[in-house]
Amino acid sequence: MSCSELTSQCLVAIREELKPHVHGGKFFTSEDVGNLVRRLNTAISLAEEVEEEKSMLERRERLAGGRQLGPAIVGPNVVAFRGHAPTGGSRA
Hints:
Helices cover 51% and strands 8% of the residues. The chain is mostly helical and 92 residues long. The protein has one domain (7-80). Helix 1 (7-18) runs antiparallel to helix 2.
């Protein structure tokens, strides 16, 4: 069973796989332990990505003071600039 792209689903899958081992019902082979370590590494990577994105968003919000300043990064190679209203009059 492989991990999905959601950290919580990955961890739930690992937990469900470990449950039969709780009271000595099954034993781990070295291959089982290696697979578990790889899956935990995947879950750790997914969690780190979420933490990094959250940190960047919080930093951007702090720097902007709650308002949009300058360009907004929409995606890779895409930057959206806020519109400029004309000063002192209406548009022609």
